[in-house]
Amino acid sequence: MSTNRIALAVAAAAWLAAAHTLAAQGAAPAARKPVTTLTSPVTGNAAAGKKLYYDYACYSCHGFNGETGARPFVPNWPANLANERSFIAFLRGRANVAPVQPSTAMPNYPEESLSDAQARDIYAYIRTFKSTPPPLEKIPVMNQILAAAKRPYKP
Amino acid sequence: MPKSKKLTVNRRGFLKGAATAAAGAAAIASQVPGSGAQAQSPAQGRTNTPAPPPTAAQIERDAGAVRPPAGGHPRAAVRPGSDLMVQVLRDLGIEYVAANPGSSFEGLQESIINYGNPPNVMPEFITALHEESSVTMAHGYGKATGKPMCALLHGTIGIQHAAMSIYQAFYDRTPVLLIAGRDLGFIAAHSANDMAGMVRSYTKWDATPKTLEESLIAIQRAYNEAITPPCGPTLVVIDIELQKEEAGSLQVPAYQPPRIPAIDSAQAREIARSLLGAQNPRIAVGRLRTPEGVRLAVQLAELVGASTSTTATQGPMSFPQRHPLCGPGASTSYDFTLGLEQPGTVALIGPSLTTLLSRDVTNIGFGGIAPGVSRAGRGGAAPGRTIDIDAEASLPVIIEEVRRQMSPDKQRVIQERSAKHAEANQMARIEALTRALEQRRAGWDSSPISTARIYAELWPLIVDEDWILASPSNFSGAHNAQLWDHNKPYSYLGGQGAGGMGYGAPASVGAALAAKSRKQIVINVQTDGDLNYAPGVLWTAQHHRLPMLTVMHNNRAWHQELMFVEYMCGVRGRGTDRGHIGTTLRDPFIDYRMLAAAYGMAGEGPITDPARLGPALKRGIASVKKGLPYLIDVITQPR
Lengths: 155, 639
Description:
- Chain A is built from 7 helices and no strands.
- Chain A has helices at residues 2-13, 19-24, 46-55, 59-62, 84-93, 116-126, 140-149.
- In chain A, helix 1 crosses helix 5 (84-93) and helix 3 (46-55) crosses helix 6.
- Chain B has 639 residues and is an alpha/beta fold.
- In chain B, the strands form 3 sheets. Chain B has a 6-stranded parallel sheet with strand order 2-1-3-4-6-5, sandwiched between helices. A 5-stranded parallel sheet of chain B has the order 8-7-9-10-11. In chain B, strands 12-13-14-16-15 form a 5-stranded parallel sheet, sandwiched between helices.
- The longest helix of chain B is centred in the middle third of the chain and has 33 residues, at 408-440.
């Protein structure tokens, strides 16, 4: 019962559109405001989590460092990544979200497919991700692009 | 076991003979009376019997025992029929004919490479390594230029190899001229009574002429049908005997271009009156047929001071994206909108001229739908507002009416409005670009390299070049849509047409054929899964020295499918750790620089350090500006 409730709450709060649909349309990831403070102890093993992040192909939607792809989450961390507990609840809760025709593209992970320990390792790895891009003014090609756009139109 | 082995050897020998048919087919064909062969083939088709065993002559040929005839033989034809076919192609302005060789069109091939002064020019024979590549080259060329290129197909097998590409060009409303050779007297399995029937559901028109004169007329008609909206591929099946026969005094028939109906003068008057009478008119421009249509759309927008929308970031032949009038304009309260080849999904306050809906949706006989028509039905246009007429042909009539109704007062208002639109659109552009750049900083220095960085690094290198982005960008983030300016009718050639893979590289080669004679360069941001369908097209690019820069978006997967399978694993709660099976290109990773090198193409990579990307792209652009293709293998983020 409570699992279902968690699942529904997660479904309502999280990634609503199918990633593959967005990606097929070439949609750029929407900018999100940072709404989450990352707290809690991180008990998993990040090195083990790195391998799991690859083996379970988390990178396929979230990029290799969480910043790119169909569903980036760095630096605008969603609430379900706030701590280990919310992350695991998010993974588990999705098992009961409209399983035949789900409204989201995030796979669900019952415990038999990904243990709590494994989930904690993945979470530990995810928490090592940092937003690293330089500011716009420090990227020469981006400034060249802006400068080119300011030139008069030539047919 | 020994018996089985013997059978295998014989079969292989027979097939080998078929595959090497071009070398000596003339000798074989000349030994088979044409009439006898014609009578034999239909009977086989009706009874569905297998192909006959090879003849003694074929076995001799398999063994390499057949040689071209020695001297002393009179010429088969002084003025071969295929010379006239080539003359027809030349008169039509066909620049290129792509094919991998096939004995059923050896007469035509010989004429292309030897007829005329100079020979092998207009059309030039382009050596392809697969029929699917030939047709997709023509598809890419057709989208870049708005006119057909020709592909030659060898009998039943060549048509079947080409079938997916034909289907895709049909979906994409792209004119392509196909000629299939037929040789009823050679290998029965390669011939059929109705060869065009295999692709009739997705070709616009086809013919199997019975005489040389009919063949010439059929090629002209096929060209006209291909370029008449809704455009599409057309096919002429030409018997080898017609290619070889003596033309004698037969003349090439005079060519009559198609008459494409335009809007009538009463409707044009009404549209002109509405455009000039509106306080804030708008023109919604979709995909026109040719660059001339784009020029006319610009002319009309400038005449009436209308802000415009464009589909230039989705495909070719639309309004220049950075034209001062292109954008939302100073006000989005439009009181009249004219649609030009806009699918009915755009709500318009005014009529939409379009041939998008005129294609028979039942034409694809197995449940397909026509381009521009949603699965839900015939689009969402308000009933009665769509005029089923070609916009490009109608523009001159509308422009003439606008000029007739123009007054000095109206001109003054239009000038003021245009200036306001230009200012507002430029401001909107800079704001949107700044936002887009901010978003694309994400992962800028990460490795694997972000797809946004590829497009961002490329743009300053090509902004002052005459370029074509020929590969679909939807799988690599579509960053060009926000970062680049699509100001030419051919800036971006859009998607595959029907979503068929194996498209990017051959379409880019076709675009590069167009680019070569127009001093342009082609950018191909190439997804790895797509390239592996028919990578031999890289050889064609190198062999013909085509200005094509290929930048691998190498995410080592059919990534879309990886996400789909992961999703399905998730739906079923079985974990995603096996989702890579059948969806990824690992173990071993493919080295695309070495692949290119095997085809003789220069390149570098794999590049994983983002700091190395910019210098590599500079070298690549320098190469293609010299007319030499180049490949850069970039290990990328998935999207």
